[in-house]
Amino acid sequence: MATVAVYNIEGKEVGTVELNDNIYGVEINENLVHKAVVTYLANGRQGTQSAKTRSEVSGGGRKPWRQKGTGHARQGSTRSPQWTGGGVVFAPKPRDYSVKMNKREKQIALFSALSSKVQDSKFIVVDDLTLDEVKTAKFVEVLKNLKANKALVVTKDKNENVILSSRNIPNVDTIMSSTINVYDILKHDSLVITKDAALAIEEVYA
């Protein structure tokens, strides 16, 4: 079991917590981490782009001029791709970009991402993140005390005061432990997580 320091919102060490090595101390599998990021981004694509091919553009049924004798190149339709207002060659159509990933692969990728933060000393455990009011300046001070820049803040339950206090801070995002993912972990430099959220992740995957 890896032992990590626990801090309060003033940045003072108030204790320690033992983390499960099967989740926070695994060998990093870069291959699956990359696959998880690609899957996350691909599944986030709407895939609704669409353009008309020459067969779908209205008009163009009549030959613009006769085949021979005009001095122009032969043309069969004013809706050919080379014409203004014509169709698009290989026009994009709505499609499904989703990629599937095995459940176990997702878990290994998540464990690898979490372990990388622990190994890099970017895994900051806080005993409690309760705020009395919505105050961005107060939350900026908390992050400064924890020496956390470009941070992903993870809580066990939805905390409106934390969410509202942090949403205007650049490069800072909040997420619940139940929806934590590889992409968000790697996107941020530091991972600020409450003690109960870290233990909640262990309960889910232990």
TrEMBL record:
Stored Gene3D superfamilies: 3.40.1370.10
GO CC annotations on file: ribonucleoprotein complex; ribosome
Keywords: Ribonucleoprotein, Ribosomal protein, RNA-binding, rRNA-binding
Taxonomic placement: Bacteria, Bacillati, Bacillota, Clostridia, Eubacteriales
Protein name according to UniProt: Large ribosomal subunit protein uL4
Assembly behavior: Part of the 50S ribosomal subunit.
Record keyword Isomerase present: no
PANTHER family: 50S RIBOSOMAL PROTEIN L4, LARGE RIBOSOMAL SUBUNIT PROTEIN UL4M
NCBIfam families: rplD_bact
Protein family: Belongs to the universal ribosomal protein uL4 family.
Any single Pfam family the record assigns to this protein: Ribosomal_L4
Protein function: Forms part of the polypeptide exit tunnel. One of the primary rRNA binding proteins, this protein initially binds near the 5'-end of the 23S rRNA. It is important during the early stages of 50S assembly. It makes multiple contacts with different domains of the 23S rRNA in the assembled 50S subunit and ribosome.
Region (Disordered) location: 48-87
Molecular functions per Gene Ontology: rRNA binding; structural constituent of ribosome
GO biological process, one term: translation
Organism: Eubacterium ruminantium
